[in-house]
């Protein structure tokens, strides 16, 4: 293979690559969206979304600081002996889950029964990231030991052992094939071809500190990465070179902030990037123009994800809030509130409902059109650290600091609260 040109799955000319996002392609300057303005409806056909707090979001504290312990879960997995850092659901068999934890173990297990299917051993430090490939035939786990293992999802057999250059920060599968992207603590991102495990290329030379977040664009043609040193790079993985980059030397970019989260629109033409101090930037990926700069939160933004039906990105933060940001108007449309840090927010496939998990030990389901809270589930005794769900939102799996994985479903009746149970905050 030519080392300067790496063929990726589905790597063919695509007319959609030229499709521009809304009306922001020729933006010549940043829009400062923090100025106060009167909100207008997102669309004539959409319900207007006001700035709303969570309906029914009151906690269950009593006067002496004790909290009644409810368990709304419909199933659980209890073999992890220490905090669970990552969970993932199989893309085509939604009863199969993957989890990894601080006990250096990963497991494949049955969501319906809680039964262990396969124990995935081999890591010598915490398993902090895990994911299935596009069809679920393979899954991968990454650890603080600098190792990535790829497994056969059906048998649990190890397919490949990948040695990264440093502690693994995250992994991300190509959306159309068996290429795995791995971000590491030393400022690099690696592309591996599976099942061979061969290194396709190394994305290096931009970041000087840990690559804290990154992913393939949904069309699979580009890679975007952000780092602890505040740099962002948009890569052509076929040549392992950046198409464009931003650094703190650019006065319009993040200053003294770690880049903590990246979300890319499903058309692969706009990204929203979040930082450790709660500020964010919107970027046109077709030309590299900076579209907007805004203070979305007062502390770190932990996840960013786009709706497929509404022109909205959901930004989840450790300041206990989720901002619904309208990327057509470049303005915040709503605030959804937890009682503690929000770890992740994820859209259902219809793009109308958002599911979030928090250190307040709850999972919540929201109607993004109205801001109404539809469900609020409890069950963990410690903060929730990870979450994934089926595309229709009918099954949600969480991993907690209590070493437990729980399953929640809006289709199942919630169990009654445990009589007489209480716990201190």
Automatic annotation (TrEMBL):
CDD domains: WD40
UniProt organism field: Allomyces macrogynus (strain ATCC 38327)
Main location: cytoplasm
Compartments in which it is found: Cytoplasm
Residue stretches of biased makeup (Acidic residues): 35-51
Protein name (database record): Uncharacterized protein
Keywords, comma-separated and alphabetical: Cytoplasm, Repeat, WD repeat
Biased composition (Basic and acidic residues): 16-27
PANTHER family to which the protein is assigned, alphabetical: ANGIO-ASSOCIATED MIGRATORY CELL PROTEIN (PTHR19857:SF8), MITOCHONDRIAL DIVISION PROTEIN 1-RELATED (PTHR19857)
């Amino acid at each position: 293979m030519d080392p300067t040109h790496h063929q990726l799955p589905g790597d063919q000319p695509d007319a959609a690559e030229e499709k521009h996002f809304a009306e922001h392609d020729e933006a010549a300057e940043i829009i400062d969206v923090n100025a106060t303005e009167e909100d207008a409806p997102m669309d004539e056909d959409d319900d207007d979304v006001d700035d709303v707090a969570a309906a029914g979001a009151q906690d269950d504290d009593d006067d002496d600081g004790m909290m009644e312990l409810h368990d709304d879960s419909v199933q659980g997995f209890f073999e992890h002996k220490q905090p669970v850092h990552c969970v993932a659901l199989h893309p085509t068999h939604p009863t199969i889950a993957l989890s990894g934890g601080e006990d250096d173990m990963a497991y494949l297990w049955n969501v319906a029964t809680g039964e262990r299917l396969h124990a995935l051993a081999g890591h010598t430090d915490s398993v902090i990231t895990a994911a299935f490939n596009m069809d679920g035939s393979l899954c991968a786990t990454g650890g603080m030991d600098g190792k990535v293992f790829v497994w056969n999802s059906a048998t649990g057999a190890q397919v490949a052992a990948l040695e990264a250059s440093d502690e693994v920060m995250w992994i991300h599968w190509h959306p159309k094939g068996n290429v795995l992207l791995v971000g590491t603590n030393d400022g690099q991102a690696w592309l591996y071809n599976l099942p061979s495990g061969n290194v396709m290329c190394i994305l290096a030379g931009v970041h000087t500190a840990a690559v804290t977040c990154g992913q393939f664009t949904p069309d699979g043609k580009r890679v975007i990465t952000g780092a602890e040193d505040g740099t962002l790079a948009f890569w052509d993985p076929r040549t392992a070179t950046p198409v464009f980059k931003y650094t703190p030397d650019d006065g319009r970019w993040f200053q003294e902030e770690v880049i903590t989260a990246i979300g890319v629109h499903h058309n692969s033409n706009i990204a929203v990037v979040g930082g450790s101090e709660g500020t964010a930037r919107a970027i046109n990926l077709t030309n590299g123009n900076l579209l907007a700069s805004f203070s979305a939160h007062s502390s770190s933004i932990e996840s960013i994800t786009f709706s497929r039906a509404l022109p909205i990105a959901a930004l989840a933060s450790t300041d206990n809030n989720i901002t619904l940001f309208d990327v057509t108007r470049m303005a915040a449309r709503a605030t959804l509130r937890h009682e503690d840090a929000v770890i992740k927010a994820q859209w259902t496939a219809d793009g109308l409902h958002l599911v979030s998990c928090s250190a307040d030990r709850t999972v919540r389901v929201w109607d993004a059109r109205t801001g109404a809270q539809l469900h609020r589930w409890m069950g963990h005794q410690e903060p929730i650290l990870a979450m994934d769900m089926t595309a229709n939102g009918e099954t949600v799996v969480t991993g907690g600091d209590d070493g437990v994985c729980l399953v929640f479903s809006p289709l199942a009746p919630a169990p009654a609260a445990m009589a007489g149970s209480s716990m201190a905050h």
